[in-house]
Amino acid sequence: MSVPTLLKRPAAFVPLLLSLAAVTLVLGYVARNGIVYHEDEGTAARVFQLLLVVQLPVIGAFAVRWLPHAPKQALSVLALQIGAAFAALALVYFLEL
Predict the structure, then answer these.
(1) What is the pLDDT of residue 95?
(2) What is the pLDDT of residue 71?
(3) 31 and 75 in contact (C-beta within 8 Å)?
(4) Whole-angstrom distance, CA of residue 92 vs CA of residue 52
(5) How far apart are the C-alpha atoms of 62 and 14, rounded to whole Å?
(6) Considering 55, 72, 80, 87, which has the largest number of Cβ atoms within 10 A of its Cβ?
């Protein structure tokens, strides 16, 4: 099985979509409000956190299902999923939100 074929599986592309949604949320928040430090976390911060946490069981299920069957391809997809999550986290870190 090839990586593009594996990426068509929901367990492979859903975490990528969730990371994309988290990045879009952060960029939309910054575009609307600017880079502002708040004492209390707002709704955007909570939704961002939920988007990242929801990815964990999906990534775990993907790993359990596909690592034994197609290890090289599954590791490539896992690297994409984890890289996308770290990209969302890095955006928040570098913007100091």
Answers:
(1) 87
(2) 93
(3) no
(4) 12
(5) 10
(6) 55
User: For residue 25, what is the DSSP state?
Assistant: H
Q: Where are the domains of the chain?
A: 12-95
Neighbouring C-beta atoms of residue 40, cutoff 10 Å: 5
Quick one: average pLDDT of 40-46?
Answer: 84
Instruction: Say what the alpha-carbon torsion angle 90, 59, 68, 4 is, to the nearest 10 degrees.
Output: -70
- 79, two tokens: 């690297």
Going by C-alpha positions, the residue among 80, 88, 77, 78 that lies closest to residue 20 is 88
| pTM attached to this predicted model | 0.89
3-class secondary-structure state, position 59: helix
Structure tokens at 24: 């879009």
Q: What percent of the chain has pLDDT over 90?
A: 74
